[in-house]
Amino acid sequence: MARFHMHMSVSDLAESIRFYSILFGSAPDVMKDDYAKWELGDPKVNFAVSTRGRRPGLDHVGIQAESDAALAALRGRLDAAGLPGVAQPNTTCCYARSDKYWTIDPQGIPWETFHSLDTVPTFGAQSGSAEGGSACCVPSLPGAH
Question: What per-residue string of b and e applies to 9-47 under the rule 16 or more CB within 10 Å gives b?
Fold first, then answer.
C-alpha cells in the first residue's frame, strides 16, 4: 500500500520535532541534525521536516510506493495525463537512496513519487538545497514555486 508523503521546510527543527511528536503521539523514526521523519501507520503518511529548502512551509508532497512496479504504475498515470516529469533513478537524498519521478501540480507544488531502496548516512549530494533549492532533491520543474 502506498504512503502519502509530505515534506515541510522549517526554521526551528527542535520546536517542529516537539510539535509533530505531540501531534502524532510518537517520536520521529529518523532524526538527524537537519532532518526528522515519521513513518506513521495512522494516518498512513511519511511526514518529514528539515531545515533545508527555500523557505519555511510546504516544500513538496508525494506518494511513497512500496515496489518498483507500484512506482512504475504511478509514473504511467502521470505520463498518461501528459504531465511534465523528471525521473531520478537511484538518487541519494533525504538520508535515502530512491528511484523517483517528479511532476508539478496546477498550483506549482512539486509532487514526488518514489520507491526507497536503502538508507544512507548523509542528506545527499544531489540535494538542491545547497544551492538555495528545495529539500529532498526537488528538480527544476517548469511552473514550480
Answer: bbeebeebbeebeeeeeeebeeeeeebbbbbbeeeebbb
CA distance 100 to 138: 10
The values of phi and psi at residue 72, to 5°, are -65, -40
Q: Tell which residue, 76, 55, 70, has the closest CA to residue 115.
A: 70
pLDDT value at residue 128: 43
User: Among residues 12, 115, 110, which one has the least CA distance to residue 56?
Assistant: 12
Using omega within 30 degrees of 0 as the cis cutoff, is the peptide bond preceding 89 cis?
Answer: no
State the pLDDT at residue 9.
Answer: 94
DSSP β-ladder status, 110-119 and 96-104: antiparallel
Read off φ and ψ for residue 132, nearest 5 degrees: 85, 15
